Structure formats: structure tokens, C-alpha cells
Amino acid sequence: MLKKTIKIIAPARLHFGFLELKNNQNNSFGGIGLTIDKFYTKIILKNNNKLQFKGFFLDKASYFIKNFCNKKKIKPNFFLNIEKYSPQHIGLGSGTQLALSIGNAISILKDINLNVEQIAKIQNRGLRSKVGLKNFDHGGFLIDLKIKKKLFNNIEKVCFPEDWKIILIKDSMQGLHGGNELTAFKKINEFKNKNNINLYNLTLMKLYPSLIENNFKEFSKAIYNFQNVMGKYFNIYQGGQFSSPKVSMVLNYLKKQKILGYGQTSWGPTGFIFFPNLKKANEMKRKLKTRFSSCKNLEFIICSGKNSGANIQF
């Protein structure tokens, strides 16, 4: 039976950084991240007699539909309703989730049967890291080792402990994007080597075991070390270790409190802090709201990891 309507709800993700930054010839960096249960992209796509839109960020949505249909040589006769959309350029991966949602919906409606990697290639997403693709596909703690050898079983899904919580530190500004982001990545091989930590080892020998063993202390240390490396590489392009001065103030305060599991997602400005349980997260949220009450543009949001990807309904 021909499907007439597709609904897709795709979660946001945090991106903690890349695994290979030096001597990289094809600009594929690998990376790690985490699917979260706050902020979603929700679309409804229907067959229609012409292309029509409703909802948020329609210019971007129009590009993704027309690009996909042009490359697959099909008519863009759809009605697209973007009911919900994660904020742009704050480190949540909203563009990739919209592109994958639209591509998947068209693929299902037209019975093309493409997988996420094929759709991402058409939509020019996941070029530097497959973290956003894994987020859409299955959620959880996201690890892209950038390994293609068939003899090695690449890590697909790592479940994030249900009790652990995250406080997001949301600023009203936007992180690096567009042409400025492209410039930064073009120059990445010119960076001086400021890293004496092997990021693959840190991921496989510290981060991964800490998640499997539910060892919050070791996980926090590993995230701190990982973020420290990212900040040293990218500070020249974002004005410091973290892109938002106000978020940086909060994170420096946490460092003084000897809390290690913090950092910035992607180019920011959104910061994050990990906690072993909801009680500790609530306690810190109250402290931060009081201490930084003069920073009117800051918002503190408690969320959890999400161990599933996009919800596709038809």
C-alpha cells in the first residue's frame, strides 16, 4: 500500500569534539557526542500536487527538499509541515536532523529505501563526523571512530546511564557557522600540535569503559580532558576555550568547585555539565541561577541522555 503521510521526530544531540585533527587529508575527523531528550525536530511530509510549506526555517527546508529531489530525479510534489525545530547554530545539530528527516520521509514516501548514510551523502551532511547520523539512527552515546576496515567491529550503540543528568547552559548568542566555520576547518591542518593526549585512546580506554561500567567519576575526567584538547585547538576561532563569555564564566566557576564533567557542545555557545543523578543536578541548577542571576541571556536546562534515535511514523 502506498504511504501518504510520514511523521518524523528527531532528537537533538551534543557534540563533544573530534578524534583526528592533524594530518587529516580528507577532512573526516570522527567524533563523540550524546543524544539528549530536550529539543526536537518534528516534521510531517505528505504527497501533494505541488510543493508547499508550513512552519519553521522554510528556506532551509526548501533547499533540502529540492536538493534531494533533484539528485534523485523526482518531482518535489510534497506538503511539508515543520511543527518543531531545534534552535539553529547553538551546538545541537539542528541542520543535520532536518536534512535527514526530510530525506528519510521522501525516501519512505517514494519507496526509494535509502539508509541514513546514503541520505546524508545526498544532503551533504556528516562530511566531517558521523555523530549526527548515529544520533538520527539509534541515539545513545555517539562514537564515530572513522574506521572502515571490515575486520574491525565499529562501535555502533553505547547506552548512556539513565540516572546521569546534564545541565545545558544556553546563551542567546549563536556559535560559529557558515563561512567562518568552513574557514576554520580549511585551516585545521595548519594548527600547531597542542595535544599530548591520543583522543582515540581517551575514547576507547577511558570514555567507553566508564559508560559500560557506570563509572561517573572516570567519565567526567575523560570528558574534561577531551574538551580541554578541543578548546586548545579551536580557541583562535571562537575567542577562547569557550565561545560565549557568559557560559565561560559559569564553566570557570564549576572548575573552581572541582566539578570536571563540563564543556561546550560543537561551536557552542551552549555549555553542558554532567551529574550522577537528578538531585545533584537540581542542587547545582539552583546555585547557578542564583549566582548568575544578572546574566539575563543565560538559561539552565536539565536533561537526560536519550538511548533511541528518530521516531518515524507512517
List keywords for this structure.
single chain; 314 residues; alpha+beta; Ribosomal Protein S5, domain 2; Alpha-Beta Plaits; 2 domains; six-stranded mixed β-sheet; four-stranded antiparallel β-sheet; 10 strands
Description:
This protein has 314 residues and is α+β, with helices and mostly antiparallel strands. The chain folds into two domains: 5-158, Ribosomal Protein S5, domain 2, CATH 3.30.230; 165-304, GHMP kinase, C-terminal domain (Alpha-Beta Plaits), CATH 3.30.70.890. Helices cover 37% and strands 22% of the residues. It is built from nine helices and ten strands. The strands form two sheets. Strands 1, 2, 3, 4, 5 and 10 form a six-stranded mixed beta sheet that branches. It has a four-stranded antiparallel beta sheet with strand order 7-8-6-9. Helix 1 (58-72) packs across helix 2 (94-109). It is globular.
Please specify the SSE layout and strand pairing.
Elements lengths: L4 E13 L13 E17 L4 E4 L2 H15 L5 E7 L9 H16 L6 H7 L8 H7 L3 E4 L20 E6 L8 H8 L12 H14 L3 H23 L6 H12 L5 E3 L6 E5 L2 H14 L7 E6 L6 E3 L1
Parallel strand pairs: 3-4
Antiparallel strand pairs: 1-2, 1-10, 2-4, 2-5, 6-8, 6-9, 7-8
**Treating each run of at least 4 consecutive H or I residues as one helix, how many helices?**
9
* Average predicted local confidence, pLDDT: 89
Q: In CATH terms, what is the fold-level topology of the largest domain?
A: Ribosomal Protein S5, domain 2
**CATH architecture term of the largest domain:** 2-Layer Sandwich
Strand content: 15-25%
How many domains make up the coordinates?
Answer: 2
What summary fits the major beta sheet? 6 strands, mixed
**CATH level-1 class of the largest domain:** Alpha Beta
